[in-house]
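User: I'm putting together a small comparison set for a docking exercise, and I want a reference complex before I start. The sequence is below, and the ligand is protoporphyrin IX containing FE. Could you produce the 3D structure with the ligand included, as structure tokens?
Assistant: Of course. I'll restate your input first, then give the structure tokens for the complex.
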Amino acid sequence: MMDMSMWIVLGTAIFLTTMILYRKRFRLRSLQRSTLPLGTLGWPFIGETIEFVSCAYSDRPETFMDKRCRIYGKVFKSHIFGSPTIVSTDAEVSKFVLQSDAKTFVPSYPKSLTELMGESSILLINGSLQRKIHGLIGAFFKSPHLKAQITKDMHKYVQESMETWEDDHPIYVQDEAKNIAFQVLVKALISLNPGEEMELLKKQFQEFISGLMSLPINIPGTQLYRSLKAKKKMANLVQNIIQARRKNGVSAASWVPKDVLDVLLNDSNEQLTDDLLADNMIDMMIPGEDSVPVLMTLAVKYLSDCPTALQQLTEENLELKKLKAQLGQPLRWSDYLSLPFTQTVITETLRMGNIIIGVMRKAMKDVEIKGYLIPKGWCFFAYFRSIHLDENHYDWPYKFDPWRWQDKDTSTTCNFTPFGGGQRLCPGLDLARLEASIFLHHLVTQFSWEAEEDTVVNFPTVRMKRRMPIWVKTKSRGDP
Ligand code: HEM
């Protein structure tokens, strides 16, 4: 009897367990079969990376996406940079992912990039520490005090640079813009002025940034090895500054932070380590060397190809210059940001230029959005470029047309995300616009120019192939 009941209990347990397991597998299979986006994972290991990269090097990187969108739809599966990936060219799906928190999606970038950034970089950390640092930096970058300082520094560095421009030599806009934007940002981050240390930093930074999209092999002779060495030298310089600040402390009650380092060092709630601070100061120099100068350079490129836009921009800026001269006032940061046409030129440059083509995340659990399944552990690539160049969102998307932005609010549409969105929306977006506005103001009010032929390179980062050479002519007073 005893034996019999034991067999019944055991049999029932086995039956129930089998049913549960079967149902679970069946549910997962049917979920995957019905909702995992269409697409192909390509070759073993390399997936579709080679095709992605070869398109990325062309002048139409989005052809990789366009081809697949036509076959599979706006959201498709692929395998790039070593991970199975869901690629999204659908603004709503991308918006949802960007707005999710770290329990659902975390940043995920190629290995060379994460090794160089360091694990405590704001671009890679998650949760409360990321929110904290993001909030502190964002608030500081928005402060009128910093904007006034940036405006003053930009004037100084732009003027110094433009004073050396001669009519009978080509000016390489990209180099000039990099030099100016890097100095301005380093000053805002750690209050370093031009001089020996700045030159050392600039030199090491070039080496550092070359490794961001290199092969992830760290042995002597490789780019990653050289870049990591350069980062160490820069970190030493920044750590010396940090230690000197910690030693001096804060003296007066009326003390105001003079740079981002001050803001982070003196946050009473969080004791941030020297390593974290140094890593982040260096990572935040990247937009100074890369994104912001590229924005300025591309604006010059597009304006050179569109004389009517250049004329309208010049008139707007000359008018402001004249008005300020009559009032005997210097130009303030708010003056620049209030120039409506100049702002539409910058917006259109951001849309067409796609300086950051998209952002990458990794799913921490199975996620379903708009009927698509993003499986746990898969990467998600929100590809902004396709959205910015989608003819369903923008008429004649490949035409530089600043007028399309007149009377439009860029902050409310999910079809325009050059600065990302959600929890990680770029905290430097106002600064980038301000720097570009000041650069353009000085350029168009002081010079006319002839641009040489040049083309945009899109990979691994956006830049001009020939560094955008132009031949300038100094304007005499009253020249349009
Ligand atoms: C044209 C110029 C710029 C462009 C196109 C740009 C674009 C972006 C994008 C798309 C992101 C989102 C990354 C993600 O979601 O993973 C981002 C984040 C960020 N940007 Fe910018 N950026 C620019 C200028 C700047 C400047 C001037 C700064 C100042 C230091 C800056 C600092 C940051 C920081 C700290 C983050 C990380 C925010 C976080 O993860 O919490 N950016 N940027």
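The CA atoms of residues 353 and 434 lie 17 Å apart. DSSP finds 19 helices and twelve strands in the chain.
User: Thanks, that's exactly what I needed.
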